[in-house]
């Protein structure tokens, strides 16, 4: 095997392998039920696969236009207008991306200059800080307090400086399964009013919102829509996380900058999948039904945890459920999930992995995007812990 003959000065010296990869690998090694990394264990509808095959056979196998195929950009603009009331121009304000991860990275690369400050809320999705650091930006971390993980708006106000270039937000929130309210968005709008701050709004779980609540998008209302890049993912919505297709909507001034980077780090996303997704989106019940579909899974999983010593926190959205385990153990969460995976055969994610300082609330994250049989088997194991 070849070996590089000189020292490497890492651009990301503190980054190792993501916790999702680590825990999924451990689950596989141990033959554990994998409720760690967030992905469904069930398939999408055949119709979606048929549409991909159709467009492949019809010869749509070459580069798509840089921003995405027109029918998909048009379908996205229609959906966003229907749901959130903002009209984005499909030609200049909608871009199809290789998943939300790429969209987030590209948004940061396009707009953050060295020395700029970017505010994030911890527990924070793992890709945000490395994206900022690679651009020479400074990550300004505000912590959401357990157990309800609400934002502290006075702290946000205090953290905003003339160097604040961007605020990255995520609702419904991974990993805490909390939602920001209309009032939270109003506070964000008020605090950024009159500034040049860009909001990057990670809304990949926009359709997975429970108990009759409403998803409050940054695309709702002119004030935030004018300064936001809203990020969505087809992976979550149509049970196809492995396809890695998502999109962003943003005002054209921001999208122009976004596309300058997008064209050189991705150029364009695979064509037949985009055409198939455009067809599939025509039926709005497919995304509108997602909340009820996952609420039933949440309720099934929570019912299965009854009689266990795990203490579930509220789950208002996403396909995640946090649980406290302090009635079982006083171990740190990372040690606990490793032992849970090895000894009890259920893998989960330690929430401390989403904090730079390793804050440990003794809370772990389960993914309930699973068949009932998987959830039932996992709960049976968890009740014995
Ligand atoms: N943001 C959040 C909050 C996520 O949970 C995920 C993935 N689960 C992503 C971004 C990345 O989405 P994608 O798989 O489309 O890149
Ligand atoms: N977003 C998924 C999660 O939170 C993981 C995706 C990944 O492994 N990068 O579990």
Mean pLDDT: 97
Query: How many strand elements?
Result: 13
Structural class: alpha/beta
User: Over all CA atoms, what is the radius of gyration?
Assistant: 21 Å
Strand order of the largest sheet: 2-8-7-6-5-3-4
- Span of the ends, CA to CA: 44 Å
Low-confidence blocks of residues = none
H-E string: HEHHEHEHEHEHEHEHEHHHHEEHEEEH
* Helical content class: 40-55%
Oligomer designation: single chain
Identify every distinct bound molecule in the structure, by name, code or SMILES. 4'-deoxy-4'-aminopyridoxal-5'-phosphate, glutamine
Give the CA-based shape: globular
Characterize the largest beta sheet: strand count, sense, and whether it forms a barrel. 7 strands, mixed
Task: Report on this structure.
This protein is α/β, with parallel strands linked by helices. It has 15 helices and 13 strands. A 7-stranded mixed β-sheet has the order 2-8-7-6-5-3-4, with helices on both faces. It has a 4-stranded antiparallel β-sheet with strand order 9-10-13-12. It is globular. The relative contact order is 0.17.
Itemize the secondary structure elements and their pairings.
Layout: H1 19-30, E1 33-34, H2 46-57, H3 70-84, E2 94-97, H4 99-111, E3 117-122, H5 128-134, E4 138-143, H6 153-159, E5 164-170, H7 182-192, E6 198-202, H8 222-225, E7 228-233, H9 234-237, E8 246-249, H10 252-265, H11 271-281, H12 285-288, H13 290-305, E9 311-312, E10 320-324, H14 333-344, E11 346-347, E12 349-350, E13 363-367, H15 372-383
Parallel strand pairs: 1-11, 3-4, 3-5, 5-6, 6-7
Antiparallel strand pairs: 2-8, 7-8, 9-10, 10-13, 12-13
Helix pairs in contact: 2-11, 3-11, 4-5, 4-10, 13-15
């Amino acid at each position: 095997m070849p070996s590089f003959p000189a020292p490497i000065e890492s651009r990301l010296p503190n980054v190792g392998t993501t916790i999702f990869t680590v825990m999924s690998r451990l689950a596989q090694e141990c033959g554990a039920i994998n409720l760690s990394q967030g992905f469904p264990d069930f398939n999408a509808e055949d119709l979606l696969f048929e549409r991909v095959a159709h467009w492949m056979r019809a010869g749509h196998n070459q580069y798509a236009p840089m921003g995405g195929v027109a029918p998909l950009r048009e379908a996205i603009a229609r959906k966003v207008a229907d749901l959130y009331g903002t009209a984005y121009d499909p030609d200049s304000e909608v871009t199809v991306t290789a998943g939300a991860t790429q969209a987030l990275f590209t948004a940061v690369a396009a707009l953050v200059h060295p020395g700029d400050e970017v505010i994030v809320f911890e527990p924070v999705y793992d890709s945000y800080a490395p994206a900022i650091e690679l651009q020479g930006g400074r990550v300004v971390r505000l912590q959401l307090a357990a157990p309800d993980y609400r934002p502290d708006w006075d702290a946000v106000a205090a953290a905003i400086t003339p160097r604040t270039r961007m605020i990255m937000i995520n609702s419904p929130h991974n990993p805490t399964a909390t939602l920001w309210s209309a009032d939270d968005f109003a506070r964000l709008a008020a605090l950024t009013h009159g500034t040049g701050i860009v909001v990057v709004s990670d809304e990949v779980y926009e359709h997975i919102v429970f108990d009759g609540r409403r998803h409050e998008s940054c695309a709702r209302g002119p004030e935030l829509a004018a300064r936001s890049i809203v990020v969505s993912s087809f992976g979550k919505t149509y049970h196809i996380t492995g396809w890695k297709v998502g999109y962003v909507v943003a005002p054209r001034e921001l999208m122009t900058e976004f596309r300058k980077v997008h064209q050189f780090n991705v150029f364009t996303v695979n064509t037949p999948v985009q055409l198939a997704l455009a067809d599939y989106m025509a039926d709005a019940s497919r995304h509108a039904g997602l909340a009820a579909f996952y609420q039933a899974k949440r309720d099934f999983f929570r019912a299965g945890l009854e009689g266990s010593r795990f203490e579930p926190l509220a789950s208002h959205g996403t396909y995640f459920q946090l649980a406290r385990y302090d009635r079982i153990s006083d171990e740190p969460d990372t040690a606990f999930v490793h032992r849970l995976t090895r000894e009890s055969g259920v893998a989960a994610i330690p929430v401390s992995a989403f904090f730079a300082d390793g804050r440990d609330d003794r809370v772990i994250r389960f993914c309930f995007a699973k068949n009932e049989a998987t959830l039932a088997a996992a709960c049976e194991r968890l009740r014995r812990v």
